[in-house]
Amino acid sequence: MKREIIITDDGSSTIHIPEWNEQYHSKHGAIQEAYHVFIKHGLHHLSHSQLKLKHNNSIAILEIGLGTGLNAFITCLEAEKLKLNINYVGVEGYPVKSEEISHLNYVTQLNAKKKQQIFEKIHNTTWEEKHQLNTNFVLTKQQKMFKDINVQNEFNLIYFDAFGARVQPELWTEPVFKNMYNALKENGVLVTYAAKGSVRRAMQSVGFTVERLPGPPGKREMLRATK
Q1: Strand 221-226, strand 184-192: pairing
Q2: How many whole angstroms separate alpha carbon 198 and alpha carbon 200?
Q3: 145 φ/ψ sector (left φ>0, alpha ψ -120 to 50, else beta)
């Protein structure tokens, strides 16, 4: 499918798929959405809880949809500020091409030119191997379908950033969320930009406790699920 780089309302770029009329991030602001959903209501929520103390400031994160690397990059930046040690696993079925990556403006928009090398490493490092991107951030990229994730009690936090249910409804079903539930440790958290009732019910049916939270710009609500 054809993919093109567009600029979202906060000035940050994303990838648009015309055939689906779908973007990798919100057209209302890619960076704004990432910070609101995954950092504020995910990483910050978890780091402020008792869980942080139990794991010596170490948090294991699973991202469903590594995509452009935006969530991984801002998590790396935040981990340094919060003095967290992050073990980050990014799963992606269809990796973004290097020529697309070269047109993304996240480093500039985040005023993070000193971290340009880290953003490049997110995309240039080999798949299926652990890579220490800095002193407190380890990245493992896995190329696989989300339904093939089969781990038990491994993660504290899941960024569920798959394409929306409108275009890929099979990614928002009970079997997928059961895999997510199994992958989380006790008191682990899953955050997503989605807020559909069918998604919330699928999460609840596999055992999650689900909260509706205020959404990022352009969305009324989002969901946070706790094991």
Answers
A1: antiparallel
A2: 5
A3: beta
Total residues belonging to the chain: 227
Please check whether residue 133 is in contact with residue 76, taking contact to mean a CB–CB distance below 8 angstroms.
Answer: yes
What are the boundaries of each domain within the chain?
29-226
What percent of the chain is helix, strand and coil (3-state, nearest 5)? Answer: 35, 30, 35
CB 143 within 8 A of CB 92: yes
How do strand 85-91 and strand 22-23 relate by DSSP bridges? unpaired
The answer to whether the CB of 33 falls within 8 A of the CB of 217 is yes
Residue 138, pLDDT > 60, answer: yes
Count of other CB atoms within 10 angstroms of residue 54: 12
- In this structure, which CATH number among 3.90.320.10, 3.30.1330.10, 3.40.50.150, 1.20.1250.20 belongs to the domain 29-226? 3.40.50.150
From the number of C-beta atoms within 10 Å of its C-beta (0-12, 13-18, 19+), residue 48 rates as: exposed
Please tell me the distance from the alpha carbon of residue 17 to that of residue 20, in angstroms, as a whole number.
6
- Mean confidence (pLDDT) of the chain: 94
pLDDT of residue 57: 80
Q: Which amino acid is at 154?
A: E
29 contacts 50 by C-beta, under 8 angstroms: no
DSSP label at residue 24: S
pLDDT in tens, 162-192: 999 999 999 999 999 999 999 999 999 999 9
The per-residue pLDDT for range 215-227, each reduced to its tens digit, is 999 999 999 999 9
